Amino acid sequence: MCEVVMEEQEREISDIDPQEYSSVAENGVMLVVNHSRAPAPFSVVLATVLYCAEFVTAAVLSSMYHKTDDVIWMAFTIVFMLLPAVLIQLALTFIHRDLGRDRPLVLFLHLLLLGPVIRCFDALVVYFKAGKKEEPYVTISRKISLKKGQKTPMELEIGQSERNLATHRNAFKRTAVIQAFLGSTPQLTLQLYATIQEKYFLPVRLALMVITLISIIYGALVCSVLAIQIRYDDYKVRLRPLAYLCMIMWRGLEIATRITALVLFSTALTHWVILVGMANLLFFFFLPWAEFWAKKGSLTENVEKNFSKLGTTVVLCMFTLLYACINVFCWSAVQLDLSHRELIERKQRWDHLAIYYCGRFVENFLLITLWYFFKSDFYEYVCAPLLCVQLLVCYSLAVLFMLLFYQFCHPCRRLFKYNVHDCLHCVCCRKGTGGGRGRQGRPPTSYSTAATMVLAPEEPLELLDSQNSHYPNSSQLGERETAIVDDIMEAA
């Protein structure tokens, strides 16, 4: 897993010899950019604030449960508070490789569950010291910038400070996901269930529910952004505020609807919700392993060089557990490939995405319907049919915002061949004349440059050379431009 983290860091900061591309830079194809100051580590600060706020609020609520002799609520609250905290300490120590370094104070603070705090402080010190004195760049990151449909290759000079900040950001991305789906999600489900059972709002409990919801949405956003960065590692990905707003609505409605459906079902059929949760968890846990065994692949050896086969299997099982916990509540945005050295399948499986959301909609509908028929007298003052319709509409709106994101807000939407409108039109007109088959082998002429769903299939270099007469601008980037085709999605 540590090697996977290093692989992703090398996507952002590539160790490239500047002399190798000096001629390209002189010809004006590569654009060299000097960074005078590293970007602020806002994501590190936000993840740390959410971690501390949730931990402190959960501790206060546990003490209140202890005073009122609510042993069950107290026990589960403490478990969902400590489990992600311990895993976060292990993840940070593992990513930064502190066990082989002489840093006793840092390791001691990790034992006190204060690892994110000292890491955040370290990142802020690095940020405020950066730029005060000129430092030579240590690496060069090569990216392709997409602006107004133009592909501009860039070489970014990376200093030591910016590289250290990139390490902190990559580490806190993992902690945000762990915190969200191994701690915040079950914590929010528990506290919402306790609120309904006790029939009153406790201010501390309400505050904890709000914090956990924010943490879950942030963790889901991190998953979506990581998926985009992994698939388009050759490109400098920048999301606009409208894209973040669209993703927040998409993830917020999806997660809130899912948790509400599970909690309502649990109030009517308490024991059956355990079966539903375990079935979901086990299905998504064994799905990557079933695909791995079906491919007859071998375990990757790049998780950690010092690990044995048993150690590698344990790490992969923990990674798969996190993947399963994410998919229980929302779409993970990535698919695991345990035989691949990066553990992530580079191609976007739109058929899996469609099956997931259709299946999840049906499951939520069944859970809400069963709750409607077996609900308790507590809901006699609630318009149950209206609540059921509202939940289904909210989940439909989540899917709508997802489609809007890929149609208009996806940062790499101009790299695809078909957009959402084309795919929907293709489905609706499947029984038509079938004139779309004649497009094969001809260059696309009228496809929109808005957010799209499917990339063009990969073509060999010989075929690309034979088509240069049709694409006079494609020869400017040469073989470098063809590198983007490695991450293409399957055709619709």
From TrEMBL:
Keyword vocabulary terms for this entry: Membrane, Transmembrane, Transmembrane helix
Main location: membrane
Keyword set includes Transit peptide: no
Pfam families on file: XK-related
GO cellular component, one term: plasma membrane
Transmembrane segments: 44-65, 71-95, 107-128, 206-230, 271-290, 310-334, 354-374, 386-408
Membrane topology note: Multi-pass membrane protein
InterPro entries, A to Z: XK-rel, XK-related_adapter
Subcellular location: Membrane
Homology family: Belongs to the XK family.
Identification of the protein by name: XK-related protein
